[in-house]
Amino acid sequence: MFIAILFLMAKLLFWNYFSLGIAPIVVGLFFFSSVQMLFIGLLGEYVGAIYTRVRRMPLVVELERVNFDRVDEESIVRSAAPDVPPAAADDGVTSLR
Known about the structure:
Elements: H1 2-13, H2 22-55, H3 70-80, H4 86-91
């Protein structure tokens, strides 16, 4: 877009040295190509968001939990699966510690 504005200013300053019809073609070309790149960028953001959701990766991976008791972690696991007995719920849980 910046190059198109420079070309338009050069056309206005050196009016007699430019061929007829070149400035509108170049300005239109740069304008429509910038609009096209904008929509390609939006499409890329959309595809990236879909890819992020399809991966099903956790948003955050905890290396260490500070000021949380071990009891709190177990109660969270039990509340997530209330139908499963506590011994069975602890078997499938892996910790990062």
